[in-house]
Amino acid sequence: MPGLTEPPAAAVTAAAVLLLGLLVLVALRRWGPFVITLPTREHPQRHRGWWPWVPRLRRLGGDDDPRDPLTGMPGRAALESQGRAVLARSEQSGCCRVGLVVLDLDGFKHVNDTLGHDAGDQVLAEVARRTRSQEREHELAVRLGGDEFAMIVIGEDDAALERRASALLDVLSAPVHVDDVSLTVAPSLGLAVHGVDARTVPDLLRVADEAMYDAKSSPSAGWRRPLPAAAGRLGRQLRDELLAAIAGGEEVRVHYQPQVDGWSGAVTGFEALVRWQHPEHGLLLPESFLPQAERSDAIVPLTRLVLAHALADRTELQRLAPGCSVAVNVSARSMLGPRLLDDVAALLRHTGASPSDLVLEITEPAPRATTEVRGLLESLRTLGCRVSVHGFGSAQTSLTALWQYSAVREIKIDPAIVRQVGADPEAERLCRAMVNAAHGLDIRVVAEGVEEAEVVHRLRAMGCDAFQGYWLGAPMPLEELGDWVGQWHRVSASRLDR
Question: Which of 217, 230, 201, 229 lies closest to 102, judged by CA?
């Protein structure tokens, strides 16, 4: 315009530098030291879609967020701070998806217990190095504590985030070499996506953690996504109600299903099966609430409560059937938790029960958890408890359990296979092979889910040791077992020999 002159280029540059300096000073006072990463000739558009002209400010850590001394990684405070900034930018721009990955290591406790904490520290340092190698611009990997890590990931869509989770799993699944020893300490990952699974960093962290434990309980997948949002809300409400029921103790009930010897007909044991007397929905069967319990912290106290009920009832159970055992199902998440062995030992002491009275029924866990679970099962056997693998022959459980877990002294053939005996020759051949393989290792075989006399007679001819199912008796409260036992004693010989 007339009368105005263009400012010299040097003045413009000086003003820009002064403005940038003021911004940095404000940031230093608010957040502490930063690294400033400017665009370069090699990466002139590295911030496109996010910060197209603002240099990247990356937190180095301060007094309120110290670096982890072992791994050099930031912690939870940095995750929440940077996570909020990334989520806000994602919502404003709409150009990218943001996810949060939570991971922990299967078998890490076994490394500490067998090789020492120095070896464990080397494993953690290597896991941290591999995790940070996967960081991209504006992402952040942190150590949450122990063997648990988290990472903010950014991608174009959900599929891109899932590919990032798979890539991280592959990188972390490679063996770690410590003092010429090759260790497999594989991770379980949970991925939560912003705007789909949760909207805040704490909520993303929580649902990713639930998905991670779901992956840990799975025999196949090393990473998982959470339930859909609507199902997740209902699931969390159900979990909260279940936790309240566990704390109160009165709504959680235990029913018992009998197990009988295939030759003498004697009652040899009872399986404790949980029920929930819901104040609004009535008596709920396990399939109504156990899946959500297994995805959350509820499964651990629920297992402890069922164990306590079963061991407290064992005096009456053994009065009805002298020498019988009581079996309790233990989920993969409970097996991989830190307290199962201590809980079992404490409850045995408290109730005065003999360890041989207790059978712990497990599903074969994920192959990546083999080492840790093997150590737990051996400890339970040393304590004097019996270990049984249920659902044997299903897609989740295989013959490998017989040689991987020497503590296993009993298998229960999966009901889906048992029900096909007499109708499907392949099912009969499979049952015969399982019975022969188990007996070759001196392992007892129970057919679970028998509903017809013909099935019992065919499996008995194969050498099956014991039977359980509705043909014998349904799960029932303790107070109804006396009548059932009396009736069974009157008819057992004729029913088995017919």
Answer: 201
